[in-house]
Amino acid sequence: MSSKSSLQSSLLATALVLGGTALASSAAAATPGRTEFEILMNGKPVGKHIVTVSRNADMTNVRIAIDMAGKIGPIGFTYRHRCEEAWRGNQLTSLNCSDQENRSNKAVAANLRGANLVVDGTGFKGNAPATILPSSWWRFSTINQSRLLDSRDGKLSRVNVNRVGEEVLQIGGTPVRANHYRVRGAVNTDLWYDSTGRWVRTAFKIAGQSFDYRKVTSVANSPRE
């Protein structure tokens, strides 16, 4: 694969994972649920992104799966991401992710130890602040962060997020009011959350291609913090 095609594929993988009115973070546990997005490239389906949140006693468990395959011009790509997060209230206690982009493999594990998350990733090994959040975007409070733990390889990524405004999205034939946010940092990504903080859309451009997340599950059954 050429260096240009490798860069395009890498940027695409970054966008998929990094995506994502401020709502105050609280100590309450997240609301369980499942959200599924169909990933469109230039209007054509190329994959899925699924987030499932469940509760077990005082712990919140999160499973994330992204699968995608397609072409950017003549260049084919495949992408597979799996991640598990464990939370106690709004505190991330552990994370374990694997990332496969064509033939390139990345991974990260993180565990809470006192005031730090101990990170062991292909992109970073060391301590991160216990308050840092992963780049999975299902939690609304992620948009209030200036640094994120990259769920692909453990790097600490700097981001800037600005609110664009309120829009009405059509989800399953139903109009949904959503707040639109623009993320700038490792990639340029736009994210939408409804008034309760549920993630309802993502859009970005990579290598001249337009990608859009179309929600295929109901908003009411989606997880939120």
Question: Keyphrases for this structure?
Answer:
225 residues; mainly beta; 13-stranded antiparallel β-sheet; three-stranded mixed β-sheet; 1 helix; 16 strands
Describe it:
The chain has a domain at 3-158. A hairpin with a 3-residue loop joins strand 7 and strand 8. It has a 13-stranded antiparallel beta sheet with strand order 8-7-6-5-4-3-2-1-16-15-14-13-12, with helices on one face. A 3-stranded mixed beta sheet has the order 9-10-11, with no helix packed on it. It is built from 1 helix and 16 strands. Helix content is 7%, strand content 60%. The longest helix has 16 residues, at 3-18. It is mainly beta.
Radius of gyration equals 17 Å
Uncertain residue segments: 1-11, 19-27
Largest sheet: 13 strands, antiparallel
**Which of globular, elongated, flat, extended, rod-shaped describes the shape?**
globular
Distance between the termini: 41 Å
| Average of pLDDT | 88
Which strands sit side by side, in order, in the main sheet? 8-7-6-5-4-3-2-1-16-15-14-13-12
User: What is the share of helical residues?
Assistant: under 10%
Topology, number of strands:
16
What percent of residues are in strands?
over 45%
Count of DSSP helices?
A: 1
Write a concise synopsis of the structure shown.
The protein is mostly beta strands and 225 residues long. It has 1 helix and 16 strands.
